[in-house]
Structure formats: structure tokens, C-alpha cells
Design brief:
Elements (H helix, E strand, L loop, with lengths): L2 E3 L11 E3 L14 E3 L24 E3 L12 E7 L8 E6 L4 E5 L9 E2 L12 E3 L8 E3 L1 E2 L6 E3 L7 E7 L2 E5 L5 E5 L3 E4 L15 H6 L54
Antiparallel strand pairs: 1-2, 3-4, 5-6, 5-8, 6-7, 9-16, 10-13, 10-16, 11-12, 13-14, 14-15
Length: 267
Amino acid sequence: MGLKRLTGTTPQRRFMTGLDFSSLTRQRPAKNLSAILKKHGGRSSNGQVSVRHQGGRQKRFYRQIDFKRDKRNIKAYVASIEYDPNRTANIALLHYADGEKRYILAPIGLKTGEQIMASVNAEIKPGNSLSLAQMPVGTFVHNVEIVPGLGGQIVRGAGTSAVVLSKEEKFVQLKMPSGEIRKVLGICFATVGQLSNEEWKNIHLGKAGRKRHMGIRPKVRGTAQDPRSHPHGGGEGRSGEGMNPKTPWGKPARGVKTRKKKKYRIT
């Protein structure tokens, strides 16, 4: 799934690029696995803006994705590879042998008509899900569990994958897309392969209206505002921040550690 350059009939479209959907299945999402995604415009229950720069997007359907892959030892064939407006990677519709249908994240190389399975003894091929302890060193994986049975929580973006580096006792060392080396329990499940739509990061939107269709409102630099609206504001002519970077509410920004130490618990 590559990129296509649009015809430059207007100044906005001259440098615009988009994804080539010719390889995807053209069909509506499964009715029992989709629902209209509600819009909140970045506002809380009392109507006040709680998240800035959000609002006014195109209507879309949310597809329920099976991140757990908990239908074990049951074969399924890939009915379609579809576009999902709610995530960067493509998704695949599975038809299980018992009649159930589920969506999963589609890795590179997965094609319609193929059979895949989630099992401890599954074959090492794109789309199959098995525990990290059963995967050989050097395997590319995605949709990795952190807590066993909770479902995949990391490595879910388009074109990303983690690599199984080594195994030590009950842990498996993974090299994350960021380059971080991380320990994960070997009984945690993951899916084999690199996620599809790797060209997503190279899209050139081309015009502001395309961003508004996504529900993203314009952002104004702090140095372009007045001093009553932002700590970086004010001054004659073009001026820098003139201080340690701050948020509009005066708190330190850029460089402050925000990672929670005890977010993930491994036992």
C-alpha cells in the first residue's frame, strides 16, 4: 500500500499526497462490529474545553478490534483487508470456523483467503498469535501484551514492529520501535509480523481543510499571543520565548518527564 500524488489542479492540491487504496477490499464495515463514534469536541461533561485543538470532524464508524486474540486453537480465514479511519494501520476481517467474525490489525504480507490462528503451537507466520516464549529470536512482532490476558497494548501503530532479542528465565527481551530494550513476561501473547501501511508517515496533507476533517483545530504559537494569554507572549516584533518553556498555565514544558514509573506491573 503505497502513496499516490494527486493532480495539482489547485495550489492546495499541488503537493498533496494520499494513500493508494487499490490493494484494500472495498466494502462497508461489518455491522455487528461497528458503531458510530461519538464526537465530544474536546469538551468535558459540563461543556468546557478539557482538551484543546479538537472539534468538528467528519462522521466515522468505530471498528471493534480484537486486541486479545483469545479465540485459541480455532482456525480463521482472512475475508478482507480494510481501511480504518480510527487508526494508522489497516485491519483484517476474520471469519472463524465456528462462524464468529472479528477484526484484527493487519500485518504486512497478510492476504485475503489465508488461514491464521491464535495458539501456543501456531506457525511463525504473519497474522498468527502465540506467546513470546514460543517465538524464536529475531522474530518481528506487534500488538504485544504487557499483562497476560489483558490484550495487546504496545506496538500497534502503522509500520511498527518489535524484535525478540533474547530469552532469560521467564522473561523475553524485546527491542521496541523506539530502540528501547524492554523485558516482557514470556507467557504474554503477541502477533507475528510488521504492521501494514508503513507509508502512512510520509503523507503530505496539502491543505488546512484536510486537517479539519480529522477533527484537529488550528494551533497558535505561544510567542504569537499576547502576555495575558500565554507566558511566552508579548514583546516588540518577533521575539523568542525568553524563559524556560512553559505551558499556557505556567507549568514547565518540553523536557519534563511524564512517564509513570508504576504504570505497568509485572509479577
